[in-house]
Amino acid sequence: MPSKVKPGGAAIAALLLIIVAIWKYPAADLSDPRFSMYFWFEIAAIAFFCFALWKINPWWAMFFGLVFISHVYPKGSMHSMSAYRACLYGFMWLYFVTIYVKQPEVNHLMDAMCIIALFNAIFLMFQAFGIDPIWKPRVGTATPLVGFMTNRNETSALLAICFPAFLRPKWMVCLIPVGIGMALTQSVGGMLAAVSGIFAYNIFKRNYKSAILLPIVGIFAYATFALIRATQWFLTDLHLGYSHWFECFKQAFMKDYQSVGRSVSSRWDIWRVAWKLIEFKPLMGFGIGHWKVEFFKFQANGKWLIHNHWWKHAHNEFVQVTLEMGQVGMAIICGYFVSVFHKLATNRSGIERLAIPLTAIVVSVVSCSTHFTMHNPVTAMVILTWIAILQIQLYGDW
Question: The whole model's pTM is what?
Fold first, then answer.
């Protein structure tokens, strides 16, 4: 059971965090910071921070402690340093939100998520008509449908992760433009995460009949993808008549089916190869940030060049954590989820009250299973905010 953090301790931890976050090693010590006095200061600061995190959630503290160890063991590099810094900033955000945001203010965080999602959805609609003041398409290509992100899969994931924030009365109507924006991305991963979220929300709210209808919603969403693509194709050749539209729809439907098949196949091949690598260092992994290093070694010999593509991410955060931080890292993540389930099991009446943040966690897990969601700063910050909101609403103000 977490214990409350005293204001003085929170302020000291926050100060140390800021110092560590802006701390830079002197050039002379970059070759091996483990023997630097600056490094020992950072160990002390991180240890204090982990103690403060432990007061909030022991699993957070253990995971961040493992992150710190993993960036120097089994080996340190510029990649592990960058990954460690990114995790440090993420845990800083998680800590500050949990400590300083009170329960009545949680709605403001969810309002911000709604605004972020709406801006991206509206921008997607403009891009669908070729209006884009930010992204300039290459000559001979169409305007990319990515919203404010750089990739349609990232945009779809962002809309899906923000979607639970709309499950409140005053924001519910805004799900329409968000749904249109998600359809415009034509990314199945985000839609799968959103549909999983709808299913989970109805289960948490005990609307079991609504949950049963979700397969129909999924089929309708898939057909919507094909419909949008067919309409885009048809509008480019209006003179061919309406019979051409049905042919466009047929081709679009099959193209989506084949595209999903290729996407699943490539991901499965990546994960299969990753598990072969994990067998070499199953306990502690290869070190945080070293996916691209270790995976590229095997791809460089041409044997494991999957689908003629160099894979910088696993497209599954749990597989990547296992490769980089070993079974210890995954065990800590699983322990966190078990602790949440245990808390909910002791207070089942509170599940309905926590339906929105719990739904967000389900959506985040599904999204992290198909994308590199935690490697994108925007989606990672939204997920960390949801984790903080769940902690606040599960245990009360800190």
Answer: 0.83
For 259, how many CA atoms within 13 A lie in the half-sphere containing its CB? 14
- Write out the two tokens for 359: 């739904």
Round to whole Å and give the CA distance between 122 and 306: 35
Helix (H, G, I), strand (E, B) or coil at 376: coil
Whether 379 contacts 116, CB under 8 Å? no
User: Are the C-beta atoms of 167 and 201 separated by less than 8 Å?
Assistant: yes
* Cβ(110)–Cβ(360) below 8 Å: no
DSSP secondary structure letter of residue 5: P
pLDDT one-digit tens code per residue, 228-249: 655 655 555 544 444 554 555 5
Tens-place pLDDT, residues 82-123? 899 899 989 989 998 998 888 888 999 999 999 999 999 999
Secondary structure (3-state) at 308: helix
CA gap 95, 19 in Å, rounded = 15
- Asked if 47 contacts 20 with a C-beta cutoff of 8 angstroms, the reply is no
Is residue 330 pLDDT above 90, yes or no?
A: yes
Triad 321, 326, 329: Cα angle to 5°: 65
